[in-house]
Amino acid sequence: MTISKVSAMVSTSWLKHQIQSTARSTNISSHLRVLDTSMVPGENSYKEYFQQGHIPTAVFFDLDKMSQAKKNSSIGFPIPDPNIFQDYVEDLGISNHTHVVAYDRFNIRTSLRTWFLFRLFGHAQVSVLDGGMRKWVSDGNPVTTEEINLEPGEFDVKFQSHLLKDYKSMVENTKTNKEQVLDARGAKGYEKGHIPGAKNIPYASLFNEDGTMRTPTELKKLFDDAGINLDKEVTSSCQLGFTACGLMAAAHILGKENVPLYNGSFHEWEALSNPDMISKTAA
């Protein structure tokens, strides 16, 4: 099943217009839901960030709550249970027709992870605010501490299994080389150890100084320079399954819509693999 393409990134001006249109209606529209995905593990991100100020009409999306690592698991941030995800997003007033726009106030890692999760659960109408909260504020747009009342949504999960890779399939790929593997970690981390055959496109290289994503031409050059052919199969990875979603979004912008995520990423690979299954690059 192929997920139809919508814009992976939306601008602050686009979102401002949509919010203004919503404000003119008599109630909060279920056709647009803005999610503040700001998260610092171990902190009460709702209290420390969302309640201190957020984009008008936004609601808090608690990634940490849904991604608690299981005891003795090698996966740092597991995929939420589909039923838990469904109940949670319905409580936020999200239905299958809702256009979800995710943002955060740091470096849009968590909003990109949210973008991936919605697509994994079959929701095509999801975008990321380009530049996040930082760009929203720098463009002179308002923030608020007001929290909105929501009517429950109706959200049916349609799990897209082809968007997810596990450790076993990644081990098999080192033998077949069927899929190109991307690594979104910084160059130093990649050089110290990576999945055999993985190519490095550091997450930070995807963005301009203001936090917005680079142009399609610039993104294409990053993939080309890394030796990645987007006409062939690609899997994305990183350390914990967050920044890899940035490479997936960049590929989506370039027309490669269904790049899967190795969710365990190098955190799991390093924990489970023998030393000969960890490649290193000389400095």
From TrEMBL:
<feature type="domain" description="Rhodanese">
    <location>
        <begin position="175"/>
        <end position="278"/>
    </location>
</feature>
<dbReference type="InterPro" id="IPR001763">
    <property type="entry name" value="Rhodanese-like_dom"/>
</dbReference>
<dbReference type="InterPro" id="IPR045078">
    <property type="entry name" value="TST/MPST-like"/>
</dbReference>
<dbReference type="GO" id="GO:0005739">
    <property type="term" value="C:mitochondrion"/>
</dbReference>
<keyword id="KW-0677">Repeat</keyword>
<dbReference type="InterPro" id="IPR001307">
    <property type="entry name" value="Thiosulphate_STrfase_CS"/>
</dbReference>
<feature type="domain" description="Rhodanese">
    <location>
        <begin position="50"/>
        <end position="145"/>
    </location>
</feature>
<dbReference type="InterPro" id="IPR036873">
    <property type="entry name" value="Rhodanese-like_dom_sf"/>
</dbReference>
<dbReference type="GO" id="GO:0004792">
    <property type="term" value="F:thiosulfate-cyanide sulfurtransferase activity"/>
</dbReference>
<protein>
    <recommendedName>
        <fullName>Rhodanese domain-containing protein</fullName>
    </recommendedName>
</protein>
<dbReference type="Pfam" id="PF00581">
    <property type="entry name" value="Rhodanese"/>
</dbReference>
<keyword id="KW-0808">Transferase</keyword>
